[in-house]
Amino acid sequence: MEADDAHKIEIWKTIIDVQKHFNELEMRIRNVAVTVLAAFLAAAGITMKDNMHVALGRFDVSLTSLVLLGGALCWLAFYGMDRFWYHRLLMGAVKQGLVVEESLAARFPESGLTKAIGDESPVKLGSLIIRSSNKIDIFYWSVALPLILAAGIAWTQPSKPVPLATPKISGTPLIAS
């Protein structure tokens, strides 16, 4: 193996490591996003169960709607960071990987990992081809849109008085009627 080939292989290995790094970062972002979403959904469930409302000016607003809206905004912030920040960096590493793999292809055809992954990544549904960027959009928007819709529905729910329970010990009321 020539010194130039060894140098190109080292560059290729570094590019593969960078691709792995950005892919792992994207997966961590999605993991944290799902965890944060679960917390918002739990909070929404509590506010819905207890029929919590807040006064916003002259309006009495379902706290559930505000929690769901906050969850949607937070979810979309994760989407922006994933799709428009780290995914773009990953795509840059992929493009550079393809350039290096092309230069190595004649002597080292087995170095085509970036191309092989890129060839297998798209999902075909009939004539529709769904690529990685589309998959990210589908992942986030399939959660964001129902959250926003649920927030809108919860916003319209009227406030209902919650009856106070009379505390009892052994079946005897503590407060005489």
Q: Cα-atom Rg, whole angstroms?
A: 26 Å
- Strand order within the widest sheet? 1-2
How do the helices and strands follow one another from N- to C-terminus? HEEHHEEHEE
Mean pLDDT score, rounded? 90
Structure report:
It is a single chain. The chain has 177 residues and is mainly alpha-helical. It has one domain. The mean pLDDT is 90. It has helices at 3-49, 63-104, 113-120, 132-155, and strands spanning 53-56, 59-62, 123-125, 128-130, 168-169, 172-173. The relative contact order is 0.14. A two-stranded antiparallel sheet has the order 1-2. Strands 3-4 form a two-stranded antiparallel sheet. Strands 5-6 form a two-stranded antiparallel sheet. Helices cover 68% and strands 10% of the residues. Helix 1 (3-49) runs antiparallel to helix 2 (63-104) and helix 2 runs antiparallel to helix 4 (132-155).
Furnish the topology, listing elements before pairings.
Blueprint: H1 3-49, E1 53-56, E2 59-62, H2 63-104, H3 113-120, E3 123-125, E4 128-130, H4 132-155, E5 168-169, E6 172-173
Antiparallel strand pairs: 1-2, 3-4, 5-6
Task: Write a brief structural summary.
With 177 residues, the chain is mostly helical. It is built from four helices and six strands; from the N terminus they run αββααββαββ.
